[in-house]
Amino acid sequence: MSVGLAGSAGAGTRTGGLLLGIDFGGTKMAVGVADAQGRLLAHRRVPTHAERGAPQALERALDLAAELVAGVGGPLVAAGVASPGVVRPDGIDLAPNVPGWERLRLADAVRDAFGVGRVAVDNDLNAAALAELRLGALRDVDPGLVVGIGTGVAAAVTVGGGVLSGHRGAAGEIGYAVAGAPWPGTMLELDFSGRALDRLAEELGVPGGAAGLADAAKRPGAAREALTARIDEAARHLVTCCLLLDPQRVVLVGGVARSDLIRGLLVGRLDEVLPHRPDVVLSRFADDAALLGALTLAREAVPASR
User: Fold this and answer.
1) Count of CB atoms situated within 10 Å of the CB of 122
2) In order of start, what are the domains of the chain with their CATH numbers?
3) What is the CA 184 to chain-centroid distance, rounded?
4) Alpha helix ranges (H) inside the chain
5) Which of 152, 175, 183, 299 is least enclosed, having the fewest CB within 10 Å?
6) pTM value?
7) How large is the angle between the packed helices 222-245 and 209-216, nearest 10 degrees?
8) DSSP-assigned beta bridge partners for residue 237
9) In the chain, what percentage of residues exceed pLDDT 70?
10) pLDDT tens-digit map of 236-262
11) In contact, 12 and 49? CB cutoff 8 Å
């Protein structure tokens, strides 16, 4: 990953010191260190081991961050953290994939570990959307929509060069959308997400989880029928998002979104029904959009010199 953070908002220049970015996910965690101009100097990705709970994940991420910062050398001036859920100063809401995550105080943990005063924390999809705004497919695009299909499913809205957080910070939590019938059905994330498709693959006896299911669905049969039904459900919600927002561009991020088959079927359904279809693209950042967003949060937390 060689993307720099040039192009962030704010006039003036930022000089000296290092930036730390941490992206916490339900499946993996990514840590990166950049210089003050945003040039990535070191990064690494490790499994979350969500089944082992939140404290061990946080501890391992902080240990890895300390190792990378020490390896690069230099003072740390700011940190940015991307996390699932709705981040509050005293905890995190709507983050069920890692037991105990709701009790973490991420900003305090990073401040205590590194003695750094400037720590910005945001939802992981909001961080990914910030990266797309500053560095990627949403530059000069307004409004924009980022849809993350990875371990879970969520969205982020960009308007006027910023990311819309909502009244309670929960804008874009479409994983909680009602899916299926009879009322109240189930949650969309339980129907269409990486973990949901892993479970579906297991039920069908298809090896390889979501990726194996997508591969099996390239051929007619039970796997294709079952996957298509899940994609149909997701498409209904994405259509509603597009009708409500009228985005200029939709950016898809996350491991499931990288499947050509799944992405093609999803986009095809938008083509069929939307009166004004937005441009739909796959993020060029692969798994790193939220990490780049975390580093951008860190960079924008540092006051610019005039």
Assistant:
1) 25
2) 18-128+288-301 (3.30.420.40), 140-283 (3.30.420.40)
3) 27
4) 54-72, 106-114, 124-135, 188-191, 194-203, 209-216, 222-245, 260-273, 289-301
5) 183
6) 0.91
7) 100
8) none
9) 94
10) 999 999 999 999 999 999 999 999 999
11) no
